[in-house]
Queue: 2 jobs
Job 1
Amino acid sequence: MSAASYNFAYLDEQSKRMIRRAILKAIAIPGYQVPFASREMPMPYGWGTGGIQVTAAILGPDDVLKVIDQGSDDTTNAVSIRAFFAKVADVKTTTATADATVIQTRHRVPETPLSDRQILVYQVPIPEPLRFLEPRETETRRLHALADYGLMHVKLYEDIAHHGHIATAYAYPVMVAGRYLMDPSPVPKFDNPKIGGCAALQLFGAGREKRIYAIPPYTRVVSLDFADYPFERYRQQGTCALCGADDTFLDEVVTDDKGGRMFICSDSDYCEKRRETASAKERPHD
Amino acid sequence: MTDDAPLLSVRGVTKWYGRRLGCRDVGFDLYPGEVIAIVGESGSGKSTLLRLLTRQADIDAGTVSYRMRDGSLRDLSALTDAERAVLRRTDWGFVHQDASFGLRMSVSAGGNIGERLMSAGARHYGDIRAEAARWLARVEIDQARIDDTPDTFSGGMRQRLQIACSLVTGPRLIFMDEPTGGLDVSVQARILDLLRGLVVDLGLSALIVTHDLGVARLLSHRIMVMKAGEVIESGLTDRVLDDPREPYTQLLVSSILPA
């Protein structure tokens, strides 16, 4: 089937309008999970169907799309989703964070600071931060309505009681604009400080769970903690073996079966840009 | 607030489950520092009444008013859900017969006690933990068990933990539904002793639903006897138990097995 037989960005216009209405409501109530009529997408749940529907609804012909998965532009998921939109929306794609207008992401916030001309779209597996503490959806909705969030602190209390520190390393719960408790999707807690006060609009789509939520630009986002156990960013102690960065989130890569390993930046674009800049300095006449 | 103003004022409370009566025209006043026992056989509407008073179910007729900390008497039906939720987690305590209703069985004892504190805004781990340890000691649970979950606790310990969880925010009113049901006699005696001490020390008001007249005699000042959804007799505990007027009450009192 040729790409021409698809509507622009795969979804029909009515579906896109429905999703845009959910997005507008989500932006109006920062951190609140807005139900939406999630559509079947030509890929399984868990591959980012929520993020893809949000991206499809906001994408325009002039947009430049970047897709990352765990910070990387070249994993199967990222490559497939980028190819999908190149085919069904004929938009330009890029791997450079600074060049993109829409960035769909799974599990990371780019290292390069985002601007107010960009939108970050997160793929969300489970939007409800209280789900594993309170399995009943009716009850979690009531807790959100009453802003009754003691339960989330119980989780953090248990972490400290059992591990001596807050052991939650990803999907670290945040309060958005002083009102709604929100799961920032499974990004490492290293990325939490980048979510608050961010210049870019941040949209979160959960396809299977049929929820959309949002953080408008420059919104106050606070990671939950205790006065005597404050929130701490976490990264592997080490520097990137490729670009030498010592302030980025690192992936541990096993290099052989004799215990050999190295750390490299999880954000592949950021790492590449740093290496390009470094080599340009070393060889100014090349 | 003076002690002659009721803490909880109940008037004409009625509840139907379809055509089946839950309870009819129940009315009483509970004063600060007073303990009232609601007794009666299974199915007499005791637990229904407790659910109605705590607004876990809607009432069909009548009013339940509660004196807030500012001294004003407020109709619970007129409060918002949020206000009622605040009452439930700060000013009221609950001790259920089945501890799994009142406790999170997979959360440590310290976490269970801490939940109400954290809901009320406590954000200092060390303080929360110290308060939890203090309450464990107060209800006579070994402080070394603070990080153990209640599903590793005995039935008696679970009830003690529920009591600690309810009292940690300094409530004024505590609702108990068969607090010693299903426990053996010696454990019952120690828990009743503990409850009696706490009620006196903290000046708590309490409503206790029980079918055990021994529990009622030990803990309560006044007693209400329910049968088929209606209060058939009420009065001072000693008066009702020693000189029952209604035939049904006489039957209840005479049914106690001699120890």
Job 2
Amino acid sequence: MKGYNFAYLDEQTKRMIRRALLKAVAIPGHQVPFGSREMPLPYGWGTGGIQVTASILGQNDTLKVIDQGADDTTNAVSIRHFFARTAGVATTTSTAKATVIQTRHRIPEETLRSDQIIVYQVPQPEPLSRLEPSRVETKRMHALADYGLMHVKLYEDVARLGQISISYDYPVLVNHRYLTSPSPIPAFDNPKMDRMPALQLFGAGREKRIYAIPPWTDVRSLDFDDHPFRPINAPQACGLCGAADSYKDEVVTDDRGGRMFVCSDTDHCERRRNDAA
Amino acid sequence: MTAAPEAGFADPVHDAQRCFRAILDAMSRPGRIARISGVTSPAPLGVAAGAALLTLLDHETPVWLDPDVWAARGWVAFHCGAAVVADPAACAFAVAMSLPDLTLFAEGTHEEPERSATVICQVDSFSKGQTFRLSGPGLREEEELSVQGLPRDFASIWERNHALFPRGIDLILCAGDQLTALPRTVSIQEV
């Protein structure tokens, strides 16, 4: 696109983000501050993820963008279009064909490979934010690896509700050290983060933080010995492809109470239906 | 009048992107070796070391140069615009022809471990020399890396750095047109 640098960001901004990314990879799960820029879309629409993607993207990359697992929702379509225009890169909806996958709130069902990078859009990078609003305090808690507050929160869930009541953005411990937000992915996706062959990068634009999980790194969802972590999913099979093991969305189909459960990962669902046909 | 410095990247945007992805790949899979091209580095820097500087340095990153690298000082100043500092503790990047004393550099703090120096160190070769066994995040199983040009007691030097985690220095090793990286998380044993 004329008048813009490759992938929109100027080179100095890319260098700054690239340096933050390298430190983030060297300290798995630790939030590294960065100078988040104004982007041509509002905070909350994935500006952190876009800035990370823009800084790593090259001419030979193939980009896939998903929003809640779907390739065809507004956020996914507009970000994919943004990079097709500003970087001229190839885009795809196929998980297998992508080299860089930017995601809002899901991890694809298909196991990612070591030659792929997944970039998460993160609204709130601080897993302790709802328990301790002060950044000064949470920074100190991370420094001391003092995560008692989160364990108390999980314990109180068990005491009051009989189970841990977090269904998304379920806190994880990365490399046995840093308490980290997996971004608002369903807890169902948490096990995919553990020893994932692909590099995982996280960008929070409004909160101006970048963090990362290198490949093959231990990622453990917090739990208790007598209340082990339990991913939650709808018990129904997908109404379109019949998959029982994928994460499902509930879709309202009419105004008379009709509803169906379908795979949230549209590429996965489509591929299964094509394979069956 | 001194001669004009050697050229930087032939294609600044895309060469820097390719070099960054190689460094990112090496940092996230410690010990993985990548080949870099697209730049004529000034003596004594090799292609990979020069490219790493062009990719990562700018006016926001104070750089410390070991005396053996001073010949390339003008090139670094011209292309990167980075301030060359005399105090190693004040630098974001250090460039050296042989492994400097890692304790001289900023190790970061417990609250801000990212405020540590990245040391770009030139070595002779990755195809011969001492063999090290690497393990840690980024590695599915133990990997081996051969390096010629590191001190004999590198494994014990690194052990001290590794034990500082989450603080610590990150190392980018360059030999000719090849580079690899050793983040502070990697644990190194001599074979």
